[in-house]
Amino acid sequence: MDSMINRYTADRKLRHDDAYTAGNVAGKRPDRATLVYTQRCKEAWKDVPVILGGIEASLRRTAHYDYWSDTVRRSVLVDSKADMLMFGNGERRWLK
């Protein structure tokens, strides 16, 4: 589930629950979680390559209109400073 859609409603209001967090507690994950978690991984393990995959990275793999900020944002690959982006389910790509 995309972190922004999971956190906000279509009216840009905060959701009161999070089905993907322990105890259904809302607000546990940051906005644009892919960017935040990639940056934290890069800080902790500087020499380890970070590869993005999944719905959030796939939807934002190119420049895109960001509904939440009402701007055109760059690719998540550029903004996150990850090393590679796999379209779709990243885990399945590794098996092939």
UniProtKB/TrEMBL annotation:
Domain of life of the organism encoding this protein: Bacteria
Residues forming the UPF0313 domain are: 1-94
Please name one Pfam family that this protein belongs to.
Radical_SAM_N
Question: Where, if anywhere, are coiled coils annotated?
Answer: none
Keywords, ordered alphabetically: 4Fe-4S, Iron, Iron-sulfur, Metal-binding, S-adenosyl-L-methionine
Under InterPro entries, the record lists: UPF0313, UPF0313_N
What's a Gene Ontology MF term here?
Answer: 4 iron, 4 sulfur cluster binding
PANTHER family listed in its UniProt record: UPF0313 PROTEIN YGIQ
Q: What is this protein called?
A: Uncharacterized radical SAM protein YgiQ
